[in-house]
Amino acid sequence: MFVMMKQIAFIILLALSVCLFCQQLFAQSKKENYQTFRASIVAGANAAQIDGDDLAGFNKLGIRAGAEVGVRWHRLFESSVGMYYSQKGSASELSAGGTDLLARFTLNYVQIPLMVTYDDDGLQFGAGFSYSRLINSKIIILGELDEARSDSYSKNDFSFVAKGGYFIKDRIGFHLGFERSLGNILKSDVEREVNRLIFFTASYRI
């Protein structure tokens, strides 16, 4: 756990350094004073599936919540780094829990997305990459815990993230997004699975 926290802290510091560099770079080339920091609280939900687990559909509902910090380095662009608790996985039917399903894969992550966002008067479109660290995994098949499969997932998941949304009066925002793993989320070199999800979030700028 200590090693994981050191890794997360390093990624956050690196991302903030990049944001500060971008702010200084564009401040030198622009006379307009639009460079500002923004902090937001974010809460919402994931509708997830795992490609490769033989279960179809975005049936696994989960929590997506945390906070993010951004820097506006251009009139139309900003960069941000966040930290979320994000529940991914899959299910045989639409479900947020329960043990009566044919199968339910629950993967809980601490997630750090790095995004660049186009923002035109509150209308936003963003894209970037995310690092997720697996906290725990729990695979239920026919009501029984599959311990071997629960332990088969890699601790690291790197993903592509895209989202669009709108901020109302620069305070309250709503976003719809998509996320997909860039590599195999299994420890195996033979089998392959990837996380894929659609998410909806509401944000409040502090």
Return the average pLDDT rounded to an integer: 84
Spell out the helices and strands N to C: HEEEEEEHEEE
- Strands side by side in the biggest sheet: 1-2-3-4-5-7-8-9
**Assembly state of the chains shown:** single chain
Q: Estimate what percentage of residues fall within beta strands.
A: over 45%
Residues in helices, as a percent range: 10-25%
Please tell me how large the radius of gyration is.
18 Å
What's the β-strand tally? Answer: 9
Low-confidence stretches: none
- Kindly report how far apart the N and C termini lie: 30 Å
Count of domains: 1
Walk me through the structure.
The chain has 206 residues and is an alpha+beta fold. It has a single domain, classed as Beta Barrel (Porin), CATH 2.40.160. Helices cover 16% and strands 57% of the residues. It is built from two helices and nine strands, in the order αββββββαβββ. It has helices spanning 2-29, 147-150; strands at 36-51, 60-72, 77-91, 103-120, 123-141, 144-145, 156-168, 172-181, 194-205. Strands 1-2-3-4-5-7-8-9 form an eight-stranded antiparallel beta barrel. The longest helix has 28 residues, at 2-29. It is elongated. The two termini are 30 Å apart. The model has no long low-confidence stretch (mean pLDDT 84).
